[in-house]
């Protein structure tokens, strides 16, 4: 804990904004485009969004519980009064005992080690129907003499992935996690527990253990992953009937029978698992992948993990291909400015080499650091590289190479570049808020010895504690010890601000505004505001 | 496209590379080339070329053919249609984030027209969210509840919950 005498929150210092000329600059790396300062904390014009979503517990929890039951595992601040029929979704769908749910090594490891505080959420309230109302987010509740248990070793509630479900990643309540569903196609009874698991683990290794998979590694506890082990009649794609009719969609695209996919989800996936991402892994080694709403990748190809990451960039994060007509990677063109082009909706391609139409001007001139090993770097200089989105000129990409360009191989320059990483982080936060629960529940508390905030991942989410409006601990951890805070007798408001501790090498667009070029079309930047959440208690000290 | 591409077949004889013939292919069709992968061994790869003449990542588990520029896939009308839908969904998501019911409906009209199949029932989800933003009534809430309960496949469920099933609590907060 770092006691703070006064509020001292700030981010990295603002760097000077320099006007960059473009004419005549054409050599790779020859145009030094300095970074501008963080776009943070500026006034929000008409297009800004509220930090708190409807019903969020951003203020002192004077919230009346919904008359009906809450979604299982709904976090504080994201309550939903839903019918009792929904509240019983877990039971009605025939939840599996996680101990018999054939968790793979990844899920098993998490279950064994337990998650750090917050990852499991509130053991009392999470996953239970009516949790919000019962937990006392209703301001009428008054906790007395609360002693906060050690939640650091509390594992998450079991995750229900349905009758065929393999719990691959369980990090907390589905209502406050991005939920990624992967369906298996072309795996028969002889390969569903072998080949499929191998394909999934290869994908996971790239996603979590390699620089190319970042920022998914950093935000691992933000995403639950279920794999539906649907057994196909025949093994492999193209050998006969399969569960989802997978096959060649033409032009290196894979295809599945969408009706079968969506019918399966409706019939077999628990209501508590709000599906955010849907993918199908195909048991074939043909280079056929699809970056659509249903993301498809062929699990047996050499670069299958890269394909899953690349296509996910399209289907889940609305990123553009960054390769040009003439090739991929650095073959496309150098960092330069040589003419304007059309402005598309995607945030990682621009026709404006002067300032990227506001898309990644804050990144210009920076060199991307690695997330695994910062000094090893990733995609290098961020600039305006000529050639992107299938054309050689008039369209620019943020880096020489990247995951959305030439995904092949293991070079660090096939990582997501800074712009894509930022976009991925935004689209994760769009679904979530930092706080899973508090102990005791927000509201009036008498005689409390300590207060706890359970966040999604305390390694990613820091907590600043304030008493009566004065910051007393910056990045102070999950627990506030009331007994050692030297509070005078009487009533005090104790607040905890939970926020993503991403530094300026990871997130620069912090204003929650959309770049002007994508306003009205597409922007996930508004989601950054959701990465900050305040919870409060009114504590009476006797 | 009629783009004629030539690829030469080689084989390794001793330490010499010897041309043994060539094939012609049209753009978008298969070409064939041989790579010298390791000493004394010849591997043959079939490359598909897009309409732009660019080789496309081959299938199978062989080397990805890094000896020449290669696209992960060609760009076709099908690809463009997929990415167009991704962008429309992104635009709808942005409109939802701004709680802009008018923009949701405006974009939804385009989405419905261009992608009537809507197998994930996204369109109804967005429509319900817009209705909740405009008229957070018991009727819209009931419709949202029914949707959340039954359309498990829809990736809009989280946002239907957020914008339709939570505001009632927010309203009560304000009234207090």
Descriptive overview:
The complex is a heterodimer of chains A (542) and B (176). Among the domains of chain A are: 144 residues, no CATH class; 216 residues, 3-Layer(aba) Sandwich (Collagenase (Catalytic Domain)). Helix content of chain A is 13%, strand content 20%. Chain A is of the alpha/beta class and 542 residues long. A seven-stranded mixed β-sheet of chain A has the order 1-18-17-20-22-15-3, with no helix packed on it. A six-stranded mixed β-sheet of chain A has the order 4-6-5-9-11-10. In chain A, α5 crosses α7. In chain A, a hairpin with a 2-residue loop joins β7 and β8. By secondary structure, chain B is α+β, with helices and mostly antiparallel strands. Chain B folds into two domains: 68 residues, no CATH class; 99 residues, no CATH class. Chain B is 45% helix and 24% strand. Chain B is built from six helices and six strands. In chain B, α1 packs antiparallel against α2 and α4 runs antiparallel to α5. The N terminus and C terminus of chain B are likely disordered. The interface between A and B is large, with 90 and 65 residues.
What would the keywords be for this entry?
heterodimer; A: 542 residues; alpha/beta; Collagenase (Catalytic Domain); 6-stranded mixed beta sheet; B: 176 residues; alpha+beta; 2 domains; 4-stranded mixed beta sheet; two-stranded antiparallel sheet
Overall residue-averaged pLDDT value of chain B: 68
Mean pLDDT of chain A: 77
Terminal CA distance of chain A reads: 25 Å
Rg from Cα of chain B = 27 Å
Distance between the termini of chain B: 69 Å
Quote the CATH topology of the domain at 91-141 and 151-315 in chain A: Collagenase (Catalytic Domain)
The major β-sheet of chain A equals: 7 strands, mixed
Order the strands across the largest sheet of chain B as they lie in space.
3-4-5-6
Number of H- or I-type helical stretches of chain A = 8
Q: Name the CATH class of the domain at 91-141 and 151-315 in chain A.
A: Alpha Beta
Number of domains of chain B: 2
- Cα gyration radius of chain A (Å): 24 Å
The backbone outline of chain A, from C-alpha atoms, is: flat
Regions with little confidence, pLDDT below 50 for 5+ residues of chain A: 1-38, 40-73, 77-151
Helicity of chain B, as a percent range: 40-55%
| Secondary structure: number of strands of chain A | 22
Class from secondary-structure proportions of chain B: alpha+beta
Shape of chain B: elongated
- Stretches of chain B where pLDDT is under 50 for at least 5 consecutive residues are 1-45, 61-65, 168-176
CATH second-level architecture of the domain at 91-141 and 151-315 in chain A: 3-Layer(aba) Sandwich
